[in-house]
Amino acid sequence: MTSRVASSLWVLNAGLGDWTVGLLLSLFSVGPLILSLWSGRLADRYGFHLPMGLSAALALAGTVIAGVYQSLETLAACALLNGAAVSIGEVAIQRTAGKMAAHGADLRRVFSAIALSSSMSNVLAPAVAGLVIDYAGYAPAYLLAAALPALAWWIGRRVVREDMATARRNVPLGEALQLLSIESVRKLLLINLLLSAAWDVHFFAVPVIGHDRGISASSVGAILSSCAMGATLVRVLIARWADRFDERLTLLSVTIVTMVMLMAYNWLPGVPGMMAGSAVLGMAIGSVQPMILSAMHKVTPPARHGQILGLRMLATNGATAGMPLIFGALATLGGAVIPMWMIAGVLGLSTKLLRKPRPSE
Fold first, then answer.
1. 186: CB partners within 8 A, 6+ apart
2. Is residue 210 situated within a structural domain?
3. 38-47: b or e for each residue (b if 16 or more CB lie within 10 Å)?
4. What end-to-end distance do the CA atoms of the chain give, in Å?
5. Residue 361 and residue 356: Cα distance in Å, rounded?
6. Residue 331's domain spans which residues?
7. Would you say residue 144 has pLDDT above 90?
8. Residue 30: pLDDT over 60
9. How many domains does the chain have?
10. Which of 3, 116, 167, 221 could lock 235 by a disulfide, CB 3.0 to 4.6 Å apart?
11. C-beta separation of 339 from 331 below 8 A
């Protein structure tokens, strides 16, 4: 997150335009797009530690490159390496977390806790990045971010090692695609994809709107942190009262709230209004990951949990890799409100996927 914020603001400050911001943000999705299925197979075969070590090494390399010298080329390399690191590390963490749960409520609780750690990072990273950029520059922001993957690996080494002696060793890379034959998997992937696009369009729009309104980097960081704070709050609630949440009803409510907020976001007054709107969006979209992961684990064989997680990452990143480019092109034509309205409209149509099945169906 720190690298994404710093890269977006560096491009805008360099006068390279909204389209370039979209291009750079798209590069963060290239690694997950290419490596997702392989990451799932790697996690199913080797467990947690090997993938986590590889993830930390890639993230460290990417942030150091951008910290040493800032240019469009080094920031692109940073985006590619950090995206690859996310695809490998996230699948390994989610797979290991899922194996700690015994039933539906436990799944929601465990995945809420994992998502909570991510959202807490997102609360701090944009705010810290904005402050460091305002008072020290871009290089210190990237170099500060370089310490985080090293810390993650130091902590990850203390996770209990899983016995992988019986793991399947020669799994075809494309076997995960067979999971698409399950109707509930297809619906969950599509809903996840659309709500991920909503998150992406918000992350794209805030720096653009902030730049147009003359808002400082630290204020932009605070707005993005408000979104993460909303996500953190809702994940605390899910972790505390997991047995009171229903996946379908939660996802339906989230879709409606997100649609309304994207439609209204451009008229939110000033930094306080944008912070409040971002917090509401964060609460809505922040509940998606625990619900989606819990539902997916219920409909997938245990030996293929890494595969479904890799397939989920492939679907979301494959469909949204080009989204920032589209957002940038649309924003050039009519401002950041246009891509936000586009995603809101598609979300409205997607509510049909979450209707309660009739007894005859």
1. 180
2. yes
3. bbbbbbbbbb
4. 43
5. 10
6. 2-156+176-354
7. no
8. yes
9. 1
10. 116
11. yes
